[in-house]
Amino acid sequence: MLVICGNAIDNSRTQLLCNKLAQLNADTNLIDLKDKCLPIVGLPLDEQHRAEIDTLKAELKKHNEVIIVTPEFHGAISGALKNFLDYFSKEDFYDKKVFMLGTAGGNKGGINALNNLRLIMRSLGALVISDQIVFDPEDIDKTTGQINEMLLNRTLDVINKFTMNNLVNN
Ligand SMILES: Cc1cc2nc3c(=O)[nH]c(=O)nc-3n(C[C@H](O)[C@H](O)[C@H](O)COP(=O)(O)O)c2cc1C
After folding, report:
1. What would the pLDDT profile of 111-155 be if each residue is shown by its tens digit?
2. What CATH number is attached to the domain comprising 13?
3. Which of 37, 99, 140, 159 qualifies as a cystine partner to 13, CB 3.0-4.6 A?
């Protein structure tokens, strides 16, 4: 399983959640956009960027199941995540099972980013599963690292359903 952290802001709740998910299983890999910032699509790429893109595509190829965690920024996914996804095509995501999670600022935020991401992933040919979960600020405590148990267990239930795994939260 591959986890993509769609927030390039360091020490974010999104990152905390992704790190937790990435630790659940030895076969789970993490792509954290804070470490993978590529130029806006269309701007010049150097050798290092090209090598990075090849590595990212090879990594994605290894996984049939992908979890994408996106923050909601101004009613949409983050610019970092959109730019990252713009480097990929249908060929890369075709028939990959994608489970989307959102992190939001509260006040019922998150759904717009998830709807936005659903359209993008559909356009990339992915099989986006219908389950989706939003984490509000109070669900992820940056100081203690605690994540809302009920939401985490719901997340694990969905992951187990779509990966045929039996992961538990320890
Ligand atoms: C530029 C920007 C725009 C944001 N816009 C929204 C928004 O439209 N709706 C919302 O619920 N939260 C919004 N937020 C809050 C983020 O969703 C929230 O900070 C993030 O998802 C979760 O926290 P994290 O940054 O610690 O990961 C915004 C944050 C930033 C930095």
Report:
1. 999 999 999 999 999 999 999 999 999 999 999 999 999 999 999
2. 3.40.50.360
3. 140
